[in-house]
Amino acid sequence: MPPARGDRDARREDVSEAVWRTLADKGFGGLTLRAVAATMGVSTGMLMHYFPTKHALVVHALDVLEKRTADRPRRDRPAEGLAALRATLLDILPLAPDDTARNRVWVSSWDLALADGDLGADQADRYARMRSAIRPHLEAARRLGELPGSADTDRADTDQLAATVVAFAHGLVVQALFDPERFPPAVQTSMVDGFLRSLTAERPTRAPDA
Amino acid sequence: MPPARGDRDARREDVSEAVWRTLADKGFGGLTLRAVAATMGVSTGMLMHYFPTKHALVVHALDVLEKRTADRPRRDRPAEGLAALRATLLDILPLAPDDTARNRVWVSSWDLALADGDLGADQADRYARMRSAIRPHLEAARRLGELPGSADTDRADTDQLAATVVAFAHGLVVQALFDPERFPPAVQTSMVDGFLRSLTAERPTRAPDA
DNA sequence: AGGTACGTAACGAGCGTTCGGTATGTAAGG
DNA sequence: CCTTACATACCGAACGCTCGTTACGTACCT
I need a surface site. Which of A21, A131, B15, B173 has the fewest CB within 10 A? Predict the structure, then answer.
């Protein structure tokens, strides 16, 4: 039986913490074994003991990112429909330091993800999941009459709207990260409300063009 | 008087071309002096002759990106107002291979830009310019009655709407880059039209909340 | 004893950068 | 018109550094 001293999982958790801190202030481009080791005050050999290769550590770093995203504290979901969607969006935006760090890491991972096929596919999946999380709120909003279109509106239509909502959110994230002074929490919140208000409105009866 | 043989600027243009090709298939993370040198079949010493340091070459690479963005072929501006805005947005999105390459490079530069203060400020400026390019279209659209609000609508309001439009566009860019199959040109175009249609609509008279 | 958990030290590769050398041109002097 | 002088353009090799990775040694636990 292995000694299982000090608990292997606990150690990996320590590594996760160090990986996260390193990512937060150097980005993925600055994620090196030595940087992580220095952050937690150990040797690179120790890291290799828990992650056989750098690639394994990068993959783990992305897991940490996803876990932190999933487990982050969230504001109360006020209700179904648009109000819930609003809360969801506000939980994504960089309104507090922690959110900023998480989004910064996220954006910084895109360089790697675009260069590596597998990581790119993971990223695409993450977006698909994000849209799936948005969709129910849109459907509820339609049922509640907060959004035009009936409950039996085309599935493709809802997908597309979910993608638009996600696009707005992440596009705002990027701008806010680069220019936090121009996008303080109040502005971001106001933009979310403005965006949601535009969704609420009745559309003209016919589409402008194809 | 300096010899000014072979035209220095022409050489720098050759370097720009090689830098662009390197960026397009390796991203900013893969932008190394040796890679660029290999792409144009010269030595790294030659590169240092035209760019004293790697940082200078990175800055130049961002200039190339901006120049390529500014000089890209664009579809005809059909008119003022929303139609012009629509054309502007379609010119941003990755609808053709060239656009995809340009956007890929753009997104890949964010990792570096977030880690380096100066580059980050440049990026913020680029976004400010992008919003400034959008704003006139919004004002025209308001004058034409295509958008709610009068011509004397708050400047801050227009700024915010411009930021929302840019957010939508770049958020869609990122999703499309990672999942081109789910976001073919037709879907992207349809999303733009849907987004613009939602702007067109009359808003409810009062805001939902703060 | 033997396996686990590290630290230490080193390897080879790749990086940005530096340096010396060799062309190749213009400019000046006889 | 040839020569000398000098700056530019560029190559090839090397330096010093950091990277990921490996090898080896040691302390500890069972």
Answer: A21
Give yes or no: residues B98 and B34 share one domain. no
Strand D at less than 7 A from CB of A26:
no
Please write the tens of the pLDDT for every residue from B73-94: 887 777 788 899 999 999 999 9
- pLDDT tens profile A110-133: 999 998 888 899 999 999 999 999
**Do A91 and A60 share a structural domain?**
no
Do A100 and A51 fall into the same domain?
A: no
The answer as to whether A205 is a domain residue is no
Q: Provide the shortest C-alpha distance from residue A6 to chain B (in Å).
A: 35
Q: For residue B189, what are its two tokens?
A: 């175009």
Range of the domain at A62: 8-67
Residue B50, CA: closest nucleotide via C1'? D9
Measured from the CB, is A117 under 7 Å from any atom of strand C? no
CA dist., res. A58 & res. A54, Å (int): 6
Residue with tokens 């379609």: B90
A149: left (phi over 0), alpha (psi -120 to 50) or beta: left
Which of the residues A100, A125, A164 would you substitute to probe the B interface, choosing the one with the greatest number of B C-beta atoms within 10 Å? A164
The distance (Å) linking the CA of A34 with the C1' of D18 is: 9
Find the nucleotide nearest B55 (Cα to C1′): C16
R_g (Cα) of chain A, nearest Å: 20
Express each pLDDT in B44-70 by its tens digit: 989 998 999 999 999 999 988 888 887
For the four alpha carbons of B189, B103, B85 and B67, in that order, the dihedral sign comes to: negative
Domain final residue pick, A67, A93, A114: A67
Domain end: A67, A89, A105, which one? A67
In a domain, B141, yes or no: yes
Q: Which CATH number covers residue A82?
A: 1.10.357.10
**Contact map slice: A 149-188 vs B, CB within 8 A:** 160-161, 163-164, 166-172, 174-175, 177-179, 182-183, 187
**B101 plus B169 within the same structural domain:** yes
Say if CB B109 and CB A107 are below 8 A apart.
Answer: no
Q: Write out pLDDT tens, residues B128-153.
A: 999 999 999 999 888 887 878 766 66
CA distance A153 to A139: 9
